[in-house]
Design brief:
The structure is a single chain. Strand 16 and strand 17 form a beta hairpin. The chain folds into two domains: 98 residues, Immunoglobulin-like; 101 residues, Immunoglobulins (Immunoglobulin-like, Sandwich). The chain is built from one helix and 17 strands. The chain is mostly beta strands and 268 residues long. Strands 11-17-16-13-14 form a five-stranded mixed beta sheet, with no helix packed on it. It has a four-stranded antiparallel beta sheet with strand order 5-4-7-8, with no helix packed on it.
Length: 268
């Protein structure tokens, strides 16, 4: 019989990084096997091992293949021939897990405007958006050290939240920049990082003696518009009409005196 032992990467492998395998074949039978040959999914692990005596372990074969965006299975088959000419086979496999890393951090204050001297509470959230754990996660915040944390491990797809408090200054704004770095738990790891910034506007305190008028729930009185129409009393209107009629009659009389009618004559 042939036993095929295939070992692959202990940790997940990032896309484009090499996934390394080792294949070892053992003749577990009681008779020698001739011309033991390997066939593998990863070509570098295929080839001729040669003859194996009972209990003998063949020379290990090492191979690798660039990781794609999926798990990689290296299936190996060993085939030999016993003294009677009968084929003897054995199989084994190992899987290299594909790694996708991701990290995120958010900082959310409980208000966007704060009075001078008031307390501002910020919620910081760390996200592991990948499919592998993050180790040695370090969160820094130069403006607000109370927001800083060190996490030994953040599981794949998980998050962790915490809050920190600061006092608003006399004026200006509070700028809170949070940075996070973490090491993916993968083969050939390199750190990944994320950063976010939150702003809170500070409303400056009023000088001593200056009071803010209380807010009113009622609607403020609207200014009245000026009245442009003229109201005329009926008696006054009648008198005005009589005056106009008299003036018209006087004008007519003056016109007749100044311009007599042509062709008129007087009879005795």
């Amino acid at each position: 019989m042939l036993r095929v032992d295939v070992t692959g990467p202990v940790r997940a492998v990032l896309t484009g990084r090499p996934a390394r395998f080792t294949v070892a074949v053992t003749n577990t039978g009681t008779v020698p096997l001739r011309a033991v040959t390997l066939g593998a999914t990863v070509p570098g692990c295929s080839g001729l091992l040669g003859d194996l005596a009972p209990g003998q372990v063949g020379r290990p074969l090492h191979c690798e293949r660039a990781m794609e965006s999926d798990d990689l299975v290296n299936a190996v088959t060993a085939t030999g021939t016993d003294p009677a000419g009968r084929p003897v086979t054995g199989t084994g496999s190992a899987t290299a897990r594909w790694a996708r890393t991701g990290i995120g951090v958010t900082a959310v204050p409980d208000t966007l405007r704060a009075d001078a001297g008031s307390l501002i509470t910020t919620t910081v959230t760390m996200h592991n958006t990948g499919n592998v754990d993050l180790v040695n996660v370090v969160v820094t915040d130069p403006a607000l050290p109370a927001c800083e944390r060190v996490l030994d491990r953040l599981a794949a797809g998980s998050r962790q939240d915490w809050t920190c408090v600061t006092t608003a200054p006399a004026r200006g704004e509070v700028t809170n920049t949070v940075s996070a770095t973490g090491m993916p738990d993968v083969e050939d790891a390199t750190p990944i990082a994320a950063r976010t910034t939150a702003w809170v506007q500070v409303l400056a305190a009023l000088p001593p003696g200056v009071l803010v008028p209380p807010a009113s729930d009622s609607e403020p009185e609207r200014p009245r518009l000026a009245t442009t129409a003229v109201r005329v009393d009926p008696v006054s209107a009648f008198g005005l009409g009589m005056l106009l009629a008299g003036a018209l009659m006087m004008l007519a009389g003056l016109r007749r005196r100044r311009y007599p009618v042509r062709g008129a004559y007087r009879r005795d």
